[in-house]
Backbone:
């Protein structure tokens, strides 16, 4: 009996480790639209960037207001605005819509259903967990773009995730704080 408990404990620990590796904190996902309504949403996507300025490295996050060939306009949750120069962005991620999470649910249900397989569950449960984790990762990454690597695509597809895809309206960004890279 202790052999079965040991196997169950190892499987539980392995599953918990795999699942915990997939967890990432994405701020304010509740405000992001679903994939179906992303094209009709009046809000921009969500951005989380690390910026190198004159004084230090700063982490910023908020709604994407506009993207130009040289700048990223962000409105934070406290309604303050920031214009970040393209060259100042060290790393970051833009999320355009929230994922539904159905892949993770089906993976968990499939892994639980392997209980009926008896000893074969030693093969089928990890197969469910591995393939489901890969599918879930692909589902989550479908809504995200990395910066600055994808910033070159600003003229093509990143503007679609901004609240103002054609650029900031004249006079709107006058009070925004500007961050540039030290020369």
Residues:
């Amino acid at each position: 009996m202790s052999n079965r408990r040991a196997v169950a404990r190892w499987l539980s620990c392995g599953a918990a480790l795999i699942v915990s590796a997939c967890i990432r904190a994405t701020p304010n996902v509740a405000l992001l639209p679903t994939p179906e309504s992303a094209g009709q949403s009046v809000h921009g996507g969500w951005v989380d960037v690390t910026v190198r300025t004159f004084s230090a490295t700063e982490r910023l996050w908020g709604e994407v207001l506009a993207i130009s060939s040289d700048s990223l306009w962000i409105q934070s949750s406290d309604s303050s605005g920031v214009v970040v120069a393209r060259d100042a962005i060290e790393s970051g991620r833009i999320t355009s819509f929230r994922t539904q999470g159905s892949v993770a649910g089906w993976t968990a249900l499939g892994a639980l259903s392997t209980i009926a397989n008896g000893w074969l569950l030693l093969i089928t449960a990890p197969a469910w967990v591995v393939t489901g984790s890969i599918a879930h990762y692909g589902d989550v990454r479908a809504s995200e773009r990395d910066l600055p690597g994808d910033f070159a695509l600003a003229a093509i597809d990143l503007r679609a995730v901004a609240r103002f895809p054609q650029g900031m309206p004249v006079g709107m960004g006058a009070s925004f704080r500007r961050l540039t890279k030290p020369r």
Q: What stands out?
A: DSSP finds three helices and seven strands in the chain. The first helix runs from residue 2 to 21.
